[in-house]
Amino acid sequence: MPGDLKEGRIVVVGASLTGLRAAEKLREEGFTGSLTIVGDEPHPPYDRPPLSKQVLFGEVPANATALPMRRDPEAEWRLGVRATGLDTVGKRVLLADGEPVPYDRVLIATGTRARPWPNAQEAALDGVLTLRTCDDAALLAERLAAGPRRVLVIGGGFTGSEIASACRERGLDVTVAERGPAPLVGALGGTLAKLAAAMHRNHGVDLRCEVTVTALRGHGHFTGAELSDGSRVDADVCVVAMGAVRNVEWLAESGLAAGPRGIACDAGCRAFNMYGIVTDDVFVAGDVSRFPHPLFDYQLLSLEHWHNAVEQAEVAAHNMIHPEPLRRPHLAVPAFWSSQFGLNIKSVGVPTFSDHVVIAQGSLEARRLAVVYGYRGRVTAAVTVDMAKSLEYYQDLIETAAQFPPVAGASDRPPAAEVPIPSDVPDPSVLYHGPTVALTGHLPDRRLAMMRPAV
């Protein structure tokens, strides 16, 4: 590799939000070498959040969600070609078209794909869809515009709930089947899940909780589904919203620490190899990464958030072209948002990293509130419903490890919270979809206890 890190060859595998922002950052910070961006979709980078919102509402066509470029990354774009392997010894990215791309440093930003219905024959029925790509969104929007008699949504996570909201916005009958006790419970816990369930039902959604879909039926075209409680749902369209699968299979022979939860890396976005040794020429960012965060006991976080994709992409790009003393960690507080049934839901921190929760402002009845999450006596997350201006205050509490429950502040700050109750975060295995944040790894205090020498 050239002595000057701002020269040489960099390959970015993944041509979505993370890949684009990383490429732009590389050029902004003075990288003058060759830059290649590989993407398995034929489309230039586009924005995904509108696909389950404005596109399904019929407000914006799916092909009009392209991401604006802050600057020309001056890259060679290899779109519509899939990466099939990473040769870390020969420093080559292997592609499905047979033409390898050499690199000095590589950024892995392959993200996730929609988890398919597990029965391939049933999944192939016309009318059984998923929602992840702009092509997926275009097809689903077309089916919704055709006016199906009923839509079945399997999974009550954020994607499933937003699809259900879009259906009701269009005046369509929709059934949501959720394996857990309520929609969004895997991401937000039991308190806000109660509000989510009420919102579904108040807007006319046929919400079925604590049931599984046992079979999809039809001859060529989807006609309905059978549920574990013995009931049947007749519908013309089925959207499988059972979460995401991280795109790591192509790295099976790479020697990297890649698995179903993503690719493990350090806080500077350098990938670990399978023996836990950090690499210096392989970086990872976005949905496919797993990284430690000191605010959450250094457990490895896997995030499926727009905000994280941007922040981590820029940290990775910076560290790829700077020597060790100038590298910086990815310490941004996770944040996400969702719009559904007329409500604006925003979050900071990691709600699933909690043991208790309080309603600090507003109320469930008013459908306008701020919920604060705590773990072992400190604030770890906050979620607002139609009260987004409060988030900055709660983010400060998270970043300073403020005590939980939060105390009353100055007159312009939120009042004292109610009595804490258990956060009721379920085991992801009881859900159709995982949380949007997954934490893995041992807590530092447990690890230190095991490593302490005998006296």
UniProtKB/TrEMBL annotation:
UniProt entry keywords in alphabetical sequence: FAD, Flavoprotein, Oxidoreductase
Q: Report the residue ranges that make up the FAD/NAD(P)-binding domain in this protein.
A: 9-313
SUPFAM superfamilies (alphabetical): FAD/NAD(P)-binding domain (SSF51905), FAD/NAD-linked reductases, dimerisation (C-terminal) domain (SSF55424)
Every Reductase C-terminal domain range: 336-408
Instruction: Cite a single Pfam family from the UniProt record.
Output: Reductase_C
Q: Which GO terms describe its cellular component?
A: cytoplasm
Co-factor(s): FAD
One GO molecular-function entry: oxidoreductase activity, acting on NAD(P)H
Name the chain's protein: Pyridine nucleotide-disulfide oxidoreductase
From which source organism is this entry?
Streptomyces brasiliensis
Corresponding gene?
hcaD
